[in-house]
Known about the structure:
Blueprint: H1 2-24, E1 32-38, E2 45-48, H2 50-53, E3 60-76, H3 77-83, E4 89-94, E5 100-105, E6 133-145, E7 151-156, E8 166-172, H4 180-207, H5 242-264, H6 299-319, H7 322-325, H8 331-346, E9 361-366, E10 374-380, E11 389-395, E12 403-410, H9 439-452, H10 468-488, E13 492-500, E14 506-509, E15 515-529, E16 536-537, H11 543-549, E17 553-554, E18 558-570, E19 580-593
Parallel strand pairs: 2-4
Antiparallel strand pairs: 1-8, 2-7, 3-6, 3-7, 3-8, 4-5, 9-10, 10-11, 11-12, 12-19, 13-15, 14-15, 15-18, 16-17, 18-19
Helix pairs in contact: 1-4, 4-5
Amino acid sequence: MRFVWAVVAFVLATVMIGAGIAQRTILRGPESVTESVTVAADAPFTLIDGSVLTSRPGAQSLSVQGSGTVFAAYGRTSDVTAWLARTDYTRLGVDEEGAITTTEVAAASAPSPSADGTVPAMPSPVGSDLWLEEFQRDDALTTSLQLPEDMSVLIASDGTAAAPADIQVTWPIESNTPWAGPLIVGGGILLAFGIVMYALGWRHLRRSRGPRRKGLPMTATQPIDLTVEDEAKGVISSTPPRRRLTRGRQALLALPLVSVVALSGCSADAWPQLAPSPTPSPTATVVADPDQAPPAVTQQQAERILTRIAEDVSTADASADAALAATRLAGPALAERETNYTLRSKIADRAPLPPVPAEPLEILLPETFDKWPRTFLAVVDGGEGASDTIMTVSQQDPWSNYKLGYIAELATDSFPELAPAYLGAAQVAPDSPFLVLPPKDLAAAYADLLTNGDASPYARLFEAEGDAFRSGVASNREQIVNDFNQTGAETGTVSFTTQAGTQAPIALQTLESGAVVAVTITEDHTFTPSNPDAVINVPDTNPVASALTGVSQSSTGFTTTYADQLFFFVPGAGSSEPIQFLGYRSNVLSAKVV
């Protein structure tokens, strides 16, 4: 009967193991599906709409083949189509039946002519700040993506030649075999059971052969049989003891089971998933308004933009190239560097401005806006012993790169609470009545405060404690007057005026219904003679004025203008909190003869 059970177990084990292995091999379906498209048009760009990428579940694998350079980039569909508005392109979409369609799209608008009447050419897509990520290879490009429906992929060659024609998108197919593991392991157990029954059958058969005849008595001189173990006589048997034989048999019987378990594999798709998926516990978070536009940039995109700005400005600083600096700087950030380049060309020991920092990005607040211009606020950690740097970076249109507009060093340890970077914040209108002071009036109010001090009608709106810039301006002016009076008190006078700068403010909303506001003010330091026979000499006392005006003395005097970039936290209307000073940067802007 033991042999019967062994045979049955062997047969069942063979069937089960075979069925399990077959599920994992010959009976398993394809692991991916591929859609191929050949674009016959000669348009320089092809857009793969997000509906194509998400027409099947799972991550996407994109393969593009062409002749020469193959370029691919992805971004929000609205951004990609905005960038393509000036050119013809081919759009790949999906119809109602799920088939991929090809549509030729004509340019929606033409670029405005420049001042000399020329129409700017379509820029190259390579290196655009608009893309979330880009790829470039020769002849063929393959990359893995996992994009949502609101993302699209742009395909191009060099931006002028026809876009690569052969495009393939591949998706994985979920092919689980949940019973393969149990079948293989179960078959292994039956195999082990059959081996045990087979061994027991043979053992029983050998013991049931019948009685044996007794042997003749041994003579006294007959040799001892070494095959018989007798511990009492101290005789060692040449045959392994039964205990050792049993241990070896157990190891032999365990081998089939271990081998079968190994064959079954460890992948989760080979086993049935009986336990329910864990449900994450809810956590407190900031919920975006469903009608809110997406943030202008992502964290990764902002880090890449800042790195590019830092590299380009560093190159411009090395050669004092104002034209190169203008490709990455604008407004007060560009103006201060243009002046610095001029001074470095005329004053041998004039130091360059500090480099633009790019990392680590400590705070990011992008504007929620799907049009242009768009802006984001960034704070870069200054490291041990250095101040953090706060900046505003803006993009004027889809074809322009982001440019740094305001930059300053933080002068406070406290910072208003901001929305997370993945949500962003709205930009506050310059004339917004929802702040204690509209952004357009902030610069003029602070300029009046610097001029009149506590007598200013705006003094009550600003927090005096922690305002290092206000105290620094007062101390600096006092020092200038004292130095001037040592030699020119009887022949001249010095005066100071402060006014709002011409740069438009930038204000981004905070979670406290307030806003972080960046503004500029200008300070004029004017030295004039007090009698008609006196002149103001500047080479020794003010080499900056001499370098910028080109003269060393004047009978009417000199005015040196400084530009101050300032950041504030302005509370919401109705708040009892004062306006908090956040940071500043001050540099000479210009000089002129009075």
